[in-house]
Amino acid sequence: MTGQPPSEPVLRVEQLRKSYGRLDVLRGIDFSVAAHERVVVIGPSGSGKSTLLKCLNFLEPYEGGRVVFDGELVGWVERGGRRVRAPEKTIKRMRQRIGMVFQNFNLFPHMTILENVVEGPIQVLRQPRAEAVAIADELLRKVGLTDKRDAYPSTLSGGQQQRAAIARALAMRPRLMLFDEPTSSLDPELVGEVLEVMKALAIEGMTMICVTHEMSFARDVASRVIFMDEGMIVEEGPPETVFTAPQQERTRAFLARVIH
Amino acid sequence: MSYQWHFGVIGDYWFVFLRGGLATIWITLGSAALALVLGLPLGLLRGSQRRLLRLPATAYIEFVRGTPALVQIVWIYYCLPLLTGLRLDPVTTIVLAIGLHAAAFVAEIFRAGVNAVDRGQLMAAYSIGMGHLQALRRIILPQAVRKMIPPFINEFASLIKLTTLGSVIAVYELLHAANGLIATVYRPLEIYTFLALAFFVVIYPIICLSQWAERYFARRI
Ligand SMILES: Nc1ncnc2c1ncn2[C@@H]1O[C@H](COP(=O)(O)OP(=O)(O)OP(=O)(O)O)[C@@H](O)[C@H]1O
Ligand SMILES: [Mg+2]
Prior knowledge:
The complex is a heterodimer of chains A (260) and B (221).
Chain A: E1 11-20, E2 23-33, E3 38-42, H1 49-56, E4 64-69, E5 72-73, E6 76-79, E7 82-85, H2 88-96, E8 98-101, H3 113-123, H4 129-142, H5 158-170, E9 176-180, H6 188-203, E10 207-211, H7 215-221, E11 224-229, E12 232-237, H8 239-244, H9 249-258
Parallel strand pairs in A: 3-10, 3-11, 8-9, 9-10
Antiparallel strand pairs in A: 1-2, 1-4, 4-5, 6-7, 11-12
Helix pairs in contact in A: 3-4, 3-5, 4-5, 5-6
Chain B: H1 8-12, H2 14-46, H3 51-65, H4 69-84, H5 90-116, H6 119-127, H7 132-162, H8 174-185, H9 188-220
Helix pairs in contact in B: 2-3, 2-5, 2-8, 3-5, 4-5, 5-7, 6-7, 7-9, 8-9
The complex binds adenosine-5'-triphosphate (ATP) and magnesium ion.
Magnesium ion is lined by residues 49-50, 180-181 of chain A.
C-alpha cells in the first residue's frame, strides 16, 4: 500500500520497553510480523501481553525501542535528537489501520450493533452512510449476526457481542488485527463460535496477533507462537515446536499448567 | 390548644404568592442555566490531565462545596461591591450566587458521570481511530449523560430550596413575600404552613422523577 519493498514486514518491534512507574512491564521485546502471518502470544498472567498489544497501536505510550508499522514509527517522531509524541493525526491514521478486539468486547452500549459497526467508517473514515451500511451488513453476515443488526449490545450473548466487536474492527479495513484474549470472558460453549470467525479471517489472509490460551486455536491457526514471561520473549517458534518440544524450562512449566 | 386556622388568608392575598412564586421560578431557572453553563466546562477542567487546568477548577469546586451557600450569597451582596465597586441588584445577586454555587455541584456530577463510563470505551473509540474530542462527543458523553440526568434533577430540586436564601438580601421570592405578608396580616401559622406545602408539592415530584430516571437508565445501560 505504501510502496515499500515486499520484504518489509507489516510490523517490526525492536527492543520495546515500557514501565508503569517503577514496574518494568516490557523489558526489551523484539519480533516482527510479516503480511498474512498469524502470531499467537501466550504467557502467564501479568507477563505483559495486554500491555504489549496496547503499545503496538499506542493506546499505551512506550518509552524505549521502536514499533514500526507499515514502515512508519508508531507514536513518536524524532525531533532534534529527542522523541516527541507524533501529531494526533498521524496516530489516528495508524490506529485506523490496526483493528483491536478486547477481552470485554467494549461495544458501544448506546448504539445498535449496526451503528457500532458503521461508527468508525462514517465518523472516522468519512464513508457515505449507504456505503458503510452495505459493508457493515456484509460483515455482519460473515460473523453470523444479520438478525441482530438492530439489537443493542446488552441483549446479545457474549459470543455474539465478541463477533460484533470483530465486525466493528474489520469495518475499518485494517491491515493488522490485534486480539487480546477474545474468548477469555466467554462461557465455554460460546468460545467456538468466536474462534470460527477468527479462523475464517486467518484463512482469508488477515495478518493477526492474538493473545489467547486456546491451545487448539494456536495449533490450528498460528504460523508462530510467542511465549512471554516477565516482560520478555522467552521462546518463539512454530506451534508444533513450542507445544511439543519447548526449548526453555519456563515454557515447559507454563504449558504443563495450561494444558491439563 | 384551640387555634382558629384561617387559611382564607391565602386566597385573599393570592397575588402576593403569585408575585413571589414568579420570582422564585425566575431565580431557579436563571441560576440553573448559569450552573449548567459554568458547571460543564468546570467539570471537564476538573478531570483534565493537565495540572494547570485541573488545579484552579479543583480549588473553586472545593471552596464552594466547603462554604455555606448563605455566606456565599451575603459575601457577593455585601463584599463584592466594596471590592470591585460593582453594585448588583438583589435578584441578579441571588441568581449569580446560586448559579456559582450550584455550578460546583454540577461540575462534580459531570465529572462523576464521565468517570463512571468504562475505560474500555475510550480504548475502543481510540482503537478505531477516533481523536480525544470525537471519542468524548460520540462515545463517552452520550453514556455519561444517562448517568448524570438523575443527579442533575436532584440538584435542580436543591436549587429550588436554595432560592429561599434570597430573603436575607430582600429578594422578593416566596419566603420574603410570605414574611412581608405575615408582617401585615399576622397569620404566620397559615402562611408558613402553606409555604412549606407549596414547596413540597413542587419539589417532591421532582425527587420522584430523579429516582424514576435512575431506575430507568439503570435498566438501559
Ligand atoms: N495501567 C496500569 N498501571 C499500572 N500497572 C499496570 C497497568 N496495566 C498493567 N499493569 C501491570 O503491568 C503488568 C502486566 O500487565 P498486563 O495486563 O500486560 O499483563 P497480561 O500478560 O496481559 O496479564 P493477563 O493474562 O492477566 O491479562 C501487571 O503487573 C499489571 O499489574
Ligand atoms: Mg491481559
